[in-house]
Specification:
Blueprint lengths: L1 H6 L7 E6 L1 H18 L5 E7 L3 H10 L5 E10 L4 E9 L9 E9 L3 H11 L5 E10 L11 E6 L4 E2 L15 E5 L1
Parallel strand pairs: 2-3, 2-5, 5-6, 6-7
Antiparallel strand pairs: 1-9, 3-4, 8-9
Helix pairs in contact: 2-3
The structure holds inosinic acid and magnesium ion.
C-alpha cells in the first residue's frame, strides 16, 4: 500500500482492488510447474515467453521446473493503453531452433485470444513437434478467439489487472500482488 501511494503521487488516484496475493500466485505456480514437469519428462521443451508482461511469471515458472528447458522470447505489440486494438505486430522474432521441439508459449494473461491465435500460427510455421499454451491468468469477458489454454494458474471473469508483470501504460509491473485497476 505504501508503494501504491508513492506511485500515484500527484496523479488522479485510481483504485486498486486486490485480486491475487503474492502467496496465492506462488502456490499456483508451484502446482503448475509440477504438472508441466511431469508432462514434459524426456521431451525437448522450449518455453517461449511473450514480452513484456510474461517476464516475471516466466522467471518464476522456469526456476520451479525440474525438467530441462530452453528459453526464448517473442514480443508483440497489440495494446495501446489497456484496451485491445486487435492489431498485432511482432516486434521481436524467434531466435531459437524449434523444429521438432515441444513449444510452450508462456503468457501473462489471455484476454480476447487474438494475440495467442497469432502467435500459435506464427510458431507452427517453424514445424515444432507440439505447441501448447500456458498463461498465468485466463480472463473470460472479452474472448473472441476460441484458443485452447492448456495450462493456467487463475481464472478471472473480468476487469483490467495490474501487478506481477501486468501493466497499465507501463506502470505497476513491479507490484508483487495482482490488483483490479479501476480508473
Ligand atoms: P489478447 O490478445 O486480447 O488476448 O491480449 C493479450 C495481451 O493483452 C496480454 O498478453 C497482455 O499483455 C494484455 N492484457 C490483456 N488484458 C490485460 C489486463 O487485464 N491487464 C494488463 N494487460 C492485459
Ligand atoms: Mg502479454
Amino acid at each position: 500500500m505504501i508503494l501504491l501511494s508513492v506511485v500515484n503521487i500527484n496523479k488522479s488516484m485510481p483504485e486498486f482492488i486486490p485480486v491475487l496475493s503474492k502467496e496465492e500466485i506462488d502456490r499456483s505456480i508451484d502446482d503448475l510447474a509440477s504438472r508441466i514437469s511431469d508432462d514434459y519428462q524426456g521431451r525437448d521443451l522450449v518455453l517461449i515467453g511473450i514480452l513484456k508482461g510474461a517476464f516475471i511469471f516466466m522467471a518464476d515458472l522456469l526456476r520451479r521446473l525440474y525438467v530441462p528447458a530452453r528459453v526464448d522470447f517473442l514480443r508483440v505489440s497489440s495494446y495501446g493503453s489497456g484496451t485491445s486494438s486487435g492489431k498485432i505486430r511482432l516486434t521481436k522474432e524467434l531466435e531459437t531452433d524449434i523444429n521438432g521441439s515441444d513449444v510452450l508459449i508462456v503468457e501473462d494473461i489471455v484476454d480476447t485470444g487474438l494475440t495467442l491465435k497469432y502467435l500459435i500460427d506464427y510458431l507452427k510455421a517453424f514445424h515444432p513437434g507440439s505447441v501448447k499454451v500456458c498463461s498465468l491468468i485466463n480472463k473470460h469477458e472479452n474472448r473472441k478467439k476460441n484458443v485452447k489454454i492448456d495450462y493456467f494458474c487463475h481464472d478471472i471473469e473480468e476487469g483490467f489487472l495490474v501487478g506481477y508483470g501486468l501493466d497499465y501504460n507501463e506502470n505497476y509491473r513491479n507490484l508483487p500482488d495482482i490488483y483490479h485497476l479501476k480508473i
